[in-house]
Specification:
The protein is an alpha/beta fold and 254 residues long. It contains 8 helices and 5 strands; from the N terminus they run αααβαβαβαβαβα.
Length: 254
């Protein structure tokens, strides 16, 4: 019974929170009319955007998928690590401190090493109008400097700058239907990445990384207090949602 309640609570909390906010707004509007209600509506939206409970629910729905943590099958020959690791490159130099989301590269190396002959495909070019080197070159250099992995098994794509281009370029190189790949990327991006690679003819075995750290679901009163961390995560989740909508309009949704 307790487990059922704990499982159901995250799903109910968001609509209940919205209902309470709408009830309060309706009461304020009834008494003060539109000028005040606009102010309180904006304030309520800011509160929800920076609310840790909303962040916890968002993480649950966007990142927690059990099938994304399964050990990949042995027979798959390609491990694919999309770009998105490079956060900033001062002076256009190879600087490993500028790498964020590095877990996806580490797990990419791990699964490539798990089977002899398995290839590691690194995707990511330089951003337009930038003096930065391609992300895939940075990742390969990192492997050469810190690992004993055979770089002859590393293939890089230095031209693509987004997930659609990552998938398209790899599909052109492989020229095979139903090509099987192990896709290693951040949990927040995984759903969009799977859909995109599948749309290009790949059979995808996902392995997600960079999960957002989570504490207890609810701690009174801390979970009710807005925080910069929650606002930052919810902002990123909103951008990812907009990205999924855009990709769906491009024909990469389901």
């Amino acid at each position: 019974m307790i487990l059922a309640i704990n499982k159901l609570l995250p799903e109910l909390l968001m609509p209940l929170t919205v209902a309470v906010v709408l009830f309060l707004i309706a009461g304020i509007y009834r008494k003060f009319r539109w000028q005040t209600v606009i102010f309180w509506t904006a304030l309520a939206l800011v509160y929800l955007a920076a609310n840790p409970v909303v962040m916890w629910v968002t993480i649950t729905f966007s990142e927690l998928h059990e099938e994304w943590t399964h050990t990949p099958p042995e027979h798959v020959e390609d491990v694919v690590v999309p770009g998105g690791i490079l956060a900033w490159q001062p002076g256009g130099k190879l600087d490993y401190s500028a790498m964020s989301g590095i877990d996806r590269l580490l797990y990419g190396i791990k699964w490539a090493e798990a089977e002899s002959g398995r290839r590691l495909y690194l995707a990511g070019g330089a951003q337009p109008d930038s003096d930065q080197p391609p992300e895939s070159a940075l990742m390969k250099s990192f492997i050469q400097d810190f690992f004993r992995f055979d770089t002859d098994r590393v293939e890089i794509d230095t031209t693509s700058t987004n997930t659609i281009e990552h998938a398209r370029v790899l599909a052109e190189k492989r020229e095979a239907e139903d090509q099987q790949i192990i896709l290693v990327t951040s949990a927040r991006n995984m759903k969009r990445s799977i859909r995109t690679f599948e749309a290009h003819g790949f059979e995808v075995y996902p392995y997600a990384t960079d999960y957002t750290p989570r504490g207890s679901f609810f701690r009174f009163p801390g979970s009710l207090i807005p925080s910069a961390a929650a606002l930052n995560y919810n902002s990123g989740a909103l951008r990812e949602l907009m990205g999924r909508m855009y990709y769906s309009l491009r024909g990469y949704g389901s």
